[in-house]
Design a protein that fits this description.
Helices cover about 35% and strands about 30% of the residues. By secondary structure, the chain is α/β, with parallel strands linked by helices.
Length: about 350
Amino acid sequence: MKRLRIGMISFAHPHAFSYFRELAAIKNVEVVAIADDNMERVMTLLDQGHISYYEDYRIMLQLPEIDAVIICSENVKHASMVMESARAGKHILCEKPLGISMDEMKIMIEICSKYRVQLMTAFPCRYLPAVLETKRALERGDIGQVVAVKGYNRGTAPEGWFLDPSQSGGGAILDHTVHVADLLRWLFNLDPTAVYAEQGHLFHDLAVEDSGMVHIELDQGVIAFIDTSWSRNRTYPFWGDVKLDIIGTEGVIHMDAFAQTNEVYSDLEERARWSYWGERMNYYMLQDFVDSLLAGRSVLVSGEDGLQATAVALAAYESIQKKGRVILRKVEEHETRYEQ
C-alpha cells in the first residue's frame, strides 16, 4: 500500500496534537518527523515511536522521505514556513488563518504553484455531517432562495501567543471569522462583496479584541452576519460552537455543527459539561488531505479558499479602523483587494 510520509512543523497551535492523534488512525499515512523549537512541548510524542526530531524545521525539510508537511505554528510564521516547505517540494496543510496579510497569502499561493505543490487550508468544519447535509439541502433547494444568514463561532479565550498581536495578527475576529466565512463561500458558491464590523473588549482584559460582529454582503444580495467571540468562560460546559441560521424564501435551516453531545455530571469535575460524541472532523479532513495527495487530485480546501476567508477578517479590521463599510472587489483571478 502506498503511504504518505508527513513531517509536522510546530506544535504551537493546540490543534497539532489532535492532528497527530488522528493521523495515527489513518492507515496510509505515517508521521516520520517533528520540527519544533520547543522540544519539551513535543517530548511525549517523541516517546511514542520512531519519530525524528528537529529543532529547526528547515533541516527537517531537507529529508527526501517527507512527502508533505502540516504547519501549526503561530500565525505570523505561516507564510515563511509555507514558502520554505514549497521550495523543498513538500505538499502543505496549513492551520488557519492562512496568513495575516493579503500580500503574504498571495505570495504563499504563488510559490506553491511555482514549485507544483498543493497548499491546503485547515478548515475541518466542511467535513462535519451537519455542514454536509446543509449543503445538500441547499443544493436541492429545500428552502428556496437564500436571503440572509446568521453565523456563530464563539469559544473560550485561548492563552499564550494567541493574545500577542505580534504573533497572532489579531484576536477573536481573525481567529473565529475565517471558519464561518469559508462555510458561507462554500455552501452558497457566493463571494463576499462588502464588510462592516465592530469589535469589543467585553469579557477579558487582553491586548487583542475578544469579541466582534462582522456583517458581510455576498453576491446576489445575500446578507450574512457573524458573531465571532471568545465569550465562553471556563465554566461553560463546552469549548464553543459553530452554528448557522440560514433564512430562505421558503424555509429556514438551523445548523449546529457540534450538537452531538452528552450532558455529564461528575463529582470528579468542577462543573457540568457536554461530552462531544459526534463525527471527527479533523480525522476526515486529514484523511481527505492524504487521499488527495496519494491519488494526485486537488485538495478540497485550497490556499485560495484560505485567502478568501481571511480577506473577510482583514476587511473587518479595516472597517473597524475606518469606521465604515469596506468593499471587497476582485482585481483578477487569484487576486483579491479590499478598499473602502
